[in-house]
Design goal:
There is one protein chain. This protein has two domains: 50-202, Helix Hairpins (Orthogonal Bundle), CATH 1.10.287; 226-364, endopeptidase domain like (from Nostoc punctiforme) (endopeptidase fold (from Nostoc punctiforme)). It is 59% helix and 8% strand. It contains twelve helices and six strands. The protein has a six-stranded antiparallel sheet with strand order 1-6-2-3-4-5. Strand 2 (320-323) and strand 3 (329-335) form a beta hairpin. The relative contact order is 0.10.
């Protein structure tokens, strides 16, 4: 009987102590270490090689430049929309002033009728004590009625025109707000990509950074403060600027554009800039031809259609040369297979071979 009872007795719980505690702690630490190893927590991010950094930075710059050209196009449209809105508002104000004048004239006519007891002018003249003036008076009353009817018609037309202008203004304002939102989106895209490129370049040593960007350490990755502090006088002293070779351009405008571009060698790249001391790629080309008296569109994908297309074998100094399938980069051809262009924020305006990027086409605008 005693044996049967003992067989059903629950085992007494044992306290964790001594070897048991040490074993549990060891297992827990081992498990944590294993989890850490699988999660990657606590391990340093592997250092990218300069070649890997260059590939990633080049991609980021191309993407940023595509977004920059989209930004430039959106800004151009937003500026035009703002000008149209301002013109509509000015025209509405002028029409409102004319309407107020017409309303005032009608008010004066109504007040005069009220002072004369509201009689129709024809009846007043018919009951006049001077019958000899009746016919002349009747003619005057008819003319006065015609003038009043014409004035009312003009007021109604002015009211309709003002309402049309206000409707057009509302549509233009909606369009402007949409374009401004597009600007904000493109700005965020460009800023994020350029910030990521700077972060990657900052991991490199100065010599590595210079090799990756193809620039001197003095011009690599200029920050906002550096860009703001640079002046035209400081950039004109670069050796490349003083050694401009003779260029045989097809006409005076092309020659003037090429000369302007040479004069801007060493200027910093700043996205969205059109000079005079900083540029993006399309901004440099636009400024060069603006100095020659020719107005070009703002964006690369509009500039390529601004003149006559020419083949690579037909290139002459002053032609615009475009790169990448999305037409996201442009330079100014100067002859001998070279161009002047604004590359990216890591390098200033410089001379470069046109075969360093995928050639997409060329246009002669002069």
């Amino acid at each position: 009987m005693t044996l049967q009872l003992s067989a059903h007795r629950k085992p007494r719980p044992r306290s964790l102590g001594g070897t048991t505690v040490r074993t549990a702690a060891t297992l827990a630490l081992a498990g944590a270490a294993t989890a850490t190893a699988f999660d990657g927590v606590g391990h340093a991010e592997p250092q990218a090689t300069p070649a890997q950094v260059k590939a990633k930075v080049d991609t980021l710059y191309r993407e940023a430049e595509t977004a920059t050209e989209s930004y430039n196009g959106a800004k151009e449209k937003a500026d035009a929309s703002q000008r149209r809105l301002n013109a509509l508002r000015d025209e509405t104000a002028r029409r409102q002033q004319k309407l107020n004048t017409a309303r005032s004239a009608l008010g004066s006519f109504a007040a005069a009728q009220y002072r004369e007891n509201g009689y129709n002018p024809a009846w007043q003249l018919a009951l006049s004590s001077n019958p000899d003036r009746y016919l002349d008076g009747a003619s005057f009353a008819e003319r006065a009625g015609d003038r009043r009817a014409q004035a009312i018609t003009r007021v109604r037309a002015q009211l309709r025109e003002i309402e049309r202008l206000r409707g057009a203004s509302r549509v233009e304002l909606t369009s402007l707000r949409e374009r401004q939102e597009k600007l904000k989106q493109e700005r965020r895209t460009v800023t994020a990509k350029l910030a990521e490129a700077r972060r990657l370049l900052d991991r490199l040593t100065p010599p590595e950074r210079a090799r990756v960007t193809g620039a001197t350490t003095r011009t690599a990755a200029p920050g906002p403060a550096q860009r703001a502090s640079r002046s035209a006088s400081s950039t004109r002293s670069t050796p490349e600027r003083r050694t401009q070779p003779p260029v045989t351009a097809p006409d005076s405008r092309a020659a003037a554009a090429v000369s302007y571009a040479y004069g801007k060698l060493g200027s910093p790249y700043v996205w969205g800039a059109t000079g005079p001391n900083a540029f993006d790629c399309s901004g440099l080309v636009q400024a060069a031809y603006r100095s020659a008296g020719l107005s070009l569109p703002r964006t690369t994908y509009a500039q390529i259609n601004a003149g006559r297309r020419v083949s690579r074998s037909e290139l002459r100094p002053g032609d615009l040369v475009f790169f990448y399938s999305g037409i996201s980069h442009v330079g100014l051809y100067i002859g001998n297979g070279k161009m002047i262009h604004a590359p990216n924020p890591s390098a200033p305006v410089r001379v470069a071979p046109i075969d360093q990027m995928p050639f997409a086409g060329a246009t002669r605008v002069a």
